[in-house]
């Protein structure tokens, strides 16, 4: 993956979420534990989404790059976010895998995995 495909994938994921009724609250939210690519809500859930982008010739799907260690960092960062931003919405952790064309400028496929992992995996 080149450095420009990450922001391209995050924009594509944000556009997809918006088109599907989500409201984007934050992009690239940072804490001392890590970063969450997209924080969004849909009236029922507050979604903490990790976006992974790969080019079409990659041997492994992008969603497989979200390791247990990365999940733990996202969960800790989400806890800090929820402490600072009170909500009645149920938290959910999603992974959005994006495959781009060889040039990396068009989306070949987008796989939105809802509830990809949960807090209870770590606490």
Automatic annotation (TrEMBL):
GO molecular function, one term: nucleic acid binding
Family under the similarity heading: Belongs to the UPF0102 family.
Classification via HAMAP family: UPF0102
Annotated protein name in UniProt: UPF0102 protein CAFE_36770
Species per Swiss-Prot/TrEMBL record: Caproicibacter fermentans
